[in-house]
């Protein structure tokens, strides 16, 4: 059996503050919860869910301004990504993505014996669309996929650059993973009928605060949707998730308010972390973000990890010198900033001590 690098999700009750999964710190309201409780009483638990997820597709279509015929609903946007790669990638076929980006692109490509190729972006997030296209022409991808805003960096690719990619690879499916769209505000959904090779994926796990339910969507032109539906797993979205999703989608104004608060908190968090960076003698760096997290790099990642974990704080660490902090509540963010600030002071003092000796 071939070795596949699996996704490592971390859930540990030892951590009082978990800001590693890019979840929303805002839960559903009491009114929504009461509505859910009443609707759950009507579920026929002995029956399979609606195979076509009609109600939730209509509800989401109403929110984003397309027809439900442009949408497939599924078990998180992960399933939608899997559906695309499963239908397009066979042995030795290539998926082109960006480095760094969401690790599940690699996972699903590996499952299908495909080849993953990655275009390396600059550490400051600079993206050269012309260099990306030149690289893409060399590797001849069957699928191009990237998150926008990028996970884990929070950097973005402009709509103009994405259109350039679509026009340069007309026979290649271009998948724009918009899991964090709400925190950015610019989408490619308006182009799905113009570019027949465009696919957009979305989720209710982030801004909508429904990570527990795993609800995702694939949005594309109607002909492509019909084709992909032929390979969709039957009964892929359970009745409870469909029901709750429909209820929450009736209240987009709540999400807009939540997003405003999270974006405000993101900017406040970045400002405070940037102050730490300025006094760190280049020991740590943080990057501006258009998502609900802040990406950083440090030469002292293990010391930072120990300092945070000793205080019950879990953030996301990557294999190199980088890490990612999800935006938490104001109190959580203040606590995290204080721990990181104290840790950097200790690192700086030790460096100065070594220099003086």
TrEMBL record:
Alphabetical UniProt keywords: Amino-acid biosynthesis, Aminotransferase, Histidine biosynthesis, Pyridoxal phosphate, Transferase
Enzyme class: transferase
Domain called Aminotransferase class I/classII large: residue spans: 36-333
Pathway: Amino-acid biosynthesis
Residue intervals passing through the bilayer: none
Stored InterPro entries: Aminotrans_II_pyridoxalP_BS, Aminotransferase_I/II_large, HisP_aminotrans, PyrdxlP-dep_Trfase, PyrdxlP-dep_Trfase_major, PyrdxlP-dep_Trfase_small
Quaternary state and interactors: Homodimer.
Name of protein: Class I and II aminotransferase
Species for this entry: Clostridium disporicum
Gene name linked to the record: hisC
